[in-house]
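Fold it.
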Amino acid sequence: MGRNVRIVGVSLLRNEEYFAAWALMNAASFCDRIIVMDNRSQDRTRRIVEAVAEVHPHVEIMDVRNARRTHKYLEPLAGTPTWIFSLDGDEIHDPAGLAAMRQRFLAGCYDRYWRVTGHMVNVVGLRSEEGVVSGYAHAAGECRLFNFRAIESWRGGNERLHGGEVVFKPGFGGTALHLWKRKTWDEASFRCLHLCFMPRSSLDKAGDLANGEFGRKNPAEFYKERFLYRRLRRAVRRRLKPGGVADFRDYKRHYAQGPVGEFDITGFGRPSDFRAVDPHCDEAMAVLRTATERLPGSASVRNNEAGDGL
């Protein structure tokens, strides 16, 4: 792709005040442009993103009312020398690793691939002072970039980078390079912490989390809840299992597969590193501490002599 290549980050956020600054700031230098789609956030998310944009002017903010109608904003980039970087508000990337990956993308090392994926750990416990995280690796979910130069079009999608029909250019296909299959976590540059089992907003203290479910819904899942049959199904589950879903494996089960391991996260930083753009970052630190102590599977974290470690 040569020198014309660009890396465009796309982030769909809804009430992500705890980790939005951490996610965006860690990824900012990797991207030539970041499009933040704010899906009607009601907490501090918008103010945090605006503060990030003050530091990094290539961060753009877009208001979107329907998360299921966001892919259309990416359709004009099809056929251009652009890598689209999927970045969620609960995905924290290794900034030093991304810096190394950027040079490889700009040098054209991955031009022949449609998709490049990296390591992702679905986090259940985090001791940031020790640089250690506990979680599920190689379960469903992976950090990823899409090569839009390889396609003629991608139309009919719903949520950004989901669904629809991809038409490839001659000589290209749906080939993927799964870097996580080639290197270990410690060897990899492209790697990510997925905080899928953590509350991401002060608004999460009500509703599902209050009833014992860990994690929270993504924007598209909020949209699905509008359908009556989904609400009825949820009500039936509540009736059959009074008190809510006590086992977090019942929530986003596909993120909780296999054994829980420990992984080095030296260099990933922590929310409190970004106090300048999120003055309330201590709330996020407290959330990580509380969730680490409380989540099933993190007994080794709770029993560690370091205590809260945050």
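DSSP finds seven helices and 13 strands in the chain.
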